[in-house]
Amino acid sequence: MTQAAVGAVIDLRAYARETVPAHDWLTERAAPAFADGAAQVAALAPRGKGRVETLGADEFVIVLAGRLDLDLGDRVLAVPTGASCVLPVGSSFGWQAGEDALLVIVSAPADAVGTQDGPVIIDETAPLSPSNPPLAELLLGPTPSCRNHSDYWSATREFVCGTWDSTPYHRKQNPYRQIELMHLLEGSVTFTDAHASVTHKAGDVILFVRGEGCAWLSEEHVKKVYATQRPAA
Question: Are strands 169-171 and 159-166 parallel, antiparallel or unpaired?
Fold first, then answer.
């Protein structure tokens, strides 16, 4: 029997597992796990070397396996297994990857560079500042203490990437206007909708998609890397 899935949640490691090796950064990505006019999330298994002259979107890249080296001319940016980076729109770079490299890329169309004008590694150790908790009307228990650090904001402020943590909390299901890639660094979270429940733990990489959303239950400290695209209106 096929087990029901939580509709808003996609396991990106499972999605990317059968990705075919590729030799072009832009044209040989897997069929997207999600795509609409504002964002696309797709796997890429790059092999060998290549170059991108001008990137046409803001892109968040997480390395699920292997290693990615980005040649920026004056330096090489190494992105090992488990690490993430942001490639702002307009970026020019060479890339090199081994035979086991596997990436997931969140791409958001952009007309102008945001807060960084060149590739940047997501700093998982950056100091975190207090941030807003979930809305009180969505909570099914005490208000958590949340913190955040943003490594990149797009020019429109609709696309943001960084790290976040929180004390435990329980939030009821609510509709999502955003998409969010989430790489859990610490803790575990159970996601539930009307049809199913699934628990993800540290090391998992998942995607929330626009739509009906799901409930969140964390019973321990949670820390994550995130890449979110949320329309301004």
Answer: unpaired
Dump pLDDT digits (tens) for 84-127. Answer: 999 999 999 999 999 999 999 999 999 999 999 999 999 999 99
Q: Which helix (H) or strand (E) holds 218?
A: strand 215-218
Give the separation between CA 205 and CA 10, rounded to whole angstroms. 9
Name, in order, each residue with C-beta under 8 angstroms of 18's C-beta and a sequence gap of 6 or more. none
Could you give the domains of the chain? 13-121 (2.60.120.10), 125-229 (2.60.120.10)
Residue 13 DSSP SS3: helix
Question: How many Cα atoms are found within 13 Å in the side-chain-facing hemisphere of 104?
Answer: 28
pLDDT, the chain, mean: 96
**H or E element, residue 44:** strand 40-46
pTM: 0.96
Distance (Å, whole) CA 167 – CA 151? 22
Cα distance between residue 193 and residue 211, in whole Å: 12
In angstroms, rounded to a whole number, what is the distance separating the alpha carbons of residues 5 and 194?
A: 10
Cβ 29 vs Cβ 42: under 8 Å: yes
